[in-house]
Structure formats: structure tokens, C-alpha cells
């Protein structure tokens, strides 16, 4: 079970690829979207996720440059084109693949309330809005592992 | 290593995948499916045919590719080959396990 709390492309894809990879191996997987992770399941936002260029030493550019207008968009475009070359699907298609593969997708109630989101703001593949208690209830099985991203 | 499948001796690796596709026959495929608890139907064979086509064109297989295949959708694919469909389907089809992460 994955808890996705961030909306940068690198974090969203890490969760998606691991959750999908689990299904491909015949392992059950679920993703609980909380806090900024909710950006990845909002119809209007999910195609506009960015890679973080500020405060990310792996970008190998000075932090000040990373903050200039357009740099984040450029880096994101470059990363998306590299991913397309590797046949990695865009966010919306990836969510469809996950759902079709039997990976169950949930939204966090507290974060949904905090961002004033309605059910219609979220993609149809979301099965429900859960409290953390509900989520722990789902996780309460032998062999379940929780990963926080 | 050598393994006797459907009265024929074939070469397989430690995971049970055929190492020489030329040794594959429909009967071998049926036996491997049986070992994995899968009873092959016409739908399964359509998918296996698709996998062979991709293999002969040297195109890598992926779940995304299955979605675009026009032969089968992902939901049905998981239903036909439960417990890791790409792994199982390629093993039955007698080709190497896909190296794809998606």
C-alpha cells in the first residue's frame, strides 16, 4: 500500500510504477492520495504536474536558476519527453492502467476537506474518500506493507 | 536445464521459461498453462498469438502495449492470466520474460 503525499512528477511516478509493478507481479496494491498527492487525481490538475527544480540537488543547476520563470516548465517538458521515449504513459493514462489492473485508488478525507475538493473534482477511478482510520482498516492484513512517498 | 513438457524434452531457465522458442508447440503451451492453473480458451490463444506477433517483430511487451493492442483490454488480461499476466502469458507463449517495468 502506497501513501502518496507529494505532487512532483518524480514522486507521483515512483508511486505509480511501484504500484503497477506490484500488480504485474501478482501482488495486491492500493494508493492512498493525501495532501499534495491529491493533485495527481484532480481532473484539472493531473496533466500539469511538474518536476521540482528548486531545492533538488539532483538537477545540478544552481537553486537560483531553478527558480527563474520557465525553468521548471522546461525541465518538466524535457523529463516528459524522455519518459515518452521509454513508453511511460502520461498521468491520466497511467491512472486508467492502474485502475484496470486492479490497483485500488483512494483519496484522503482530511486533505480533500482541507483543499475544499468535491467528488466531481476527482477522477472517476477513485473508489472512495477514506479517513486514515479506514485506510488502516484496509491495511490490517498479514503481510501488508505501507510505503510513504 | 532440461524439462519434460508434453512428452517433449525442452530447455528451460530456472524460472521455467523456454530458452529456445523453436521448441515451443501448442501442447507445450497448454502444459505450462496447466502447471500455472490456467485452462486455455480461444481468448487466451488470441492473446498468445498477439504476443508471438510482437515477439517476431522484436517489439517489447508492456501493460501499456496490451492496452493499445486492440486484442484485449487490461482488465480482461488480468482475468485471463491471474497473478502476473505478462509473466504468465509469456511463459505459456514460450518466449522470454519481459524486462519492462510498466
From TrEMBL, chain B:
UniProt GO molecular function: sulfur carrier activity
Organism for this UniProt entry: Pelagihabitans pacificus
Domain of life of the source: Bacteria
Gene3D superfamilies in alphabetical order: 3.30.1420.10, DsrC-like protein, C-terminal domain
Family to which this protein belongs: Belongs to the DsrC/TusE family.
Gene Ontology process terms (BP): tRNA wobble position uridine thiolation
Subcellular location: Cytoplasm
Alphabetically ordered keywords of this record: Cytoplasm
Record-linked Pfam families: DsrC (PF04358)
One GO CC annotation: cytoplasm
Active site: 101
NCBIfam families listed in its UniProt record: dsrC_tusE_dsvC (TIGR03342)
PANTHER family: SULFURTRANSFERASE TUSE
Name of protein: TusE/DsrC/DsvC family sulfur relay protein
